[in-house]
Design brief:
With 170 residues, the chain is an alpha/beta fold. The protein is 37% helix and 28% strand. Helix 3 packs parallel to helix 5.
């Protein structure tokens, strides 16, 4: 989505509004209820006000994202935004990025918590802290004890653990 502010989206030359974006997500989740949606959000785009930023924070929970990749705007020489707008301070960007990352982490925890008890196919990839660690088909990170190899397994998400689930093989 890149921003929850229609004004910032317009200045980014995006051809959609935040409401259009949300409508598309609602349609996707109606058709595919288990769809896992991630997004990128740019904080600190030139002219972004606190209100604009607040709209970006709001869309994170409204869209029920699985994961948010947030990063500060950085001007690129020769681009329209770099030519047309004055960049905002690094301090403001840093503070907004911290708030966005906190909101994204809170949303991810809520998202994962709502899906505890579900069964996933997990492809073990690495060993970590005595667990095989891999990703489920929804890209959630899963930690499973007692595996002997990296063969895909069915596993139930039984608890939140680190950045994903602690799972039991079934």
């Amino acid at each position: 989505v890149q921003s929850g502010s229609d004004e910032i989206l317009r200045r980014m030359n995006r051809r959609y509004t935040s409401e259009k974006y949300l409508d598309e997500i609602r349609l996707l989740k109606t058709e595919i209820p288990e769809a896992e949606v991630t997004t990128d959000i740019i904080v600190g785009f030139p002219t972004e006000t606190e209100e604009d930023f607040g709209q970006s924070l709001s869309i994170v929970s409204e869209a029920d994202f699985f994961q948010v990749h947030a990063f500060p705007y950085s001007p690129r020489e020769g681009t329209a935004s770099a030519k047309k707008y004055t960049d905002i301070s690094a301090e403001v960007k840093k503070e907004r990025l911290a708030r966005m990352l906190a909101a994204a982490a809170e949303q991810k925890e809520k998202y994962l918590t709502e899906r505890l008890g579900k069964t996933y196919t997990v492809i073990p990839e690495t060993e970590e802290d005595g667990y095989y660690c891999g990703h489920a088909e929804n890209y959630a990170k899963c930690y499973i004890a007692g595996l002997r190899d990296k063969t895909p397994v069915k596993a139930k998400a039984v608890a939140l653990y680190k950045d994903g689930y602690l799972c039991e093989r079934i």
